Amino acid sequence: MKFVRVPLSLQQTVMHTMRQKLTQASYFWQQNFPEPHITYQQRGTAAGTARLQDWEIRLNPILLIENQQTFIDEVIPHELAHLLAYHQFGKVAPHGKEWHFIMETIFKVKASRTHQFPVHSVRSKIFIYCCSCQQHELTIRQHNKILRGKNCYVCRQCGEKLILL
């Protein structure tokens, strides 16, 4: 992945939002939380990930730059809620009731499991496979697993093995 530099003003807006949400959580639970480490190294179509044990949030720099305020308003609380759910409740379902509670009750943000950002600029090469009823788009990772004989994919509709077009 080529390195993408996130403008300083955008990084500052990310930090401001993250601190604002941390303050809301601290007020609700009457305890202080450390600031998570934020990196801009998330690749692929994921907007961000929370590394629970490292207290770290990884953000996709390309999707951040392309979707700025919407990304900050949705992704920062989403990933921070994962960290807080783990901190407060231990190992729980990633988008379970604890995470949902933090998003909706504490952060006052709609709890959505996935983002709706366009991903054409971050999507890796796709490979077209087919069965008897339709075409399927497989990622390079899935394609390579097939080539190495590690995986075999079948259509969920007809149950037929997928074949490279």
Write a brief caption for the model.
With about 160 residues, this protein is α+β, with helices and mostly antiparallel strands. The protein is built from four helices and six strands; from the N terminus they run H-E-E-E-H-H-E-E-H-E. Strand 4 and strand 5 (about 135-140) form a beta hairpin.
Provide a descriptive summary of the structure in words.
Its cofactor is Zn(2+). Belongs to the SprT family. Residues 16-165 form the SprT-like domain. A 3-stranded mixed sheet has the order 1-3-2. Strands 5-4-6 form a 3-stranded antiparallel sheet. The longest helix is centred in the middle third of the chain and has 29 residues, at 61-89. A hairpin with a 4-residue loop joins strand 4 and strand 5. 42% of the residues lie in helices and 14% in strands. The protein has 2 domains: 8-106, 2-Layer Sandwich (Zincin-like), CATH 3.30.2010.10; 126-164, no CATH class. Helix 1 runs parallel beside helix 2 and helix 2 (61-89) crosses helix 3 (97-106). The radius of gyration is 19 Å and the shape is elongated. By secondary structure, it is α+β, with helices and mostly antiparallel strands. The chain contains 4 helices and 6 strands; from the N terminus they run αβββααββαβ.
DSSP strand (E) fraction? 5-15%
Poorly predicted parts: none
Strand order of the largest sheet: 1-3-2
Helix content: 40-55%
The CATH homologous superfamily of the largest domain is called Metalloproteases ("zincins"), catalytic domain
Q: Any guess at the CATH architecture of the largest domain? A: 2-Layer Sandwich
Question: What is the H/E order?
Answer: HEEEHHEEHE
Tally of individual domains: 2
Distance N to C terminus: 27 Å
Question: Radius of gyration over alpha carbons?
Answer: 19 Å
Overall mean confidence score, pLDDT: 93
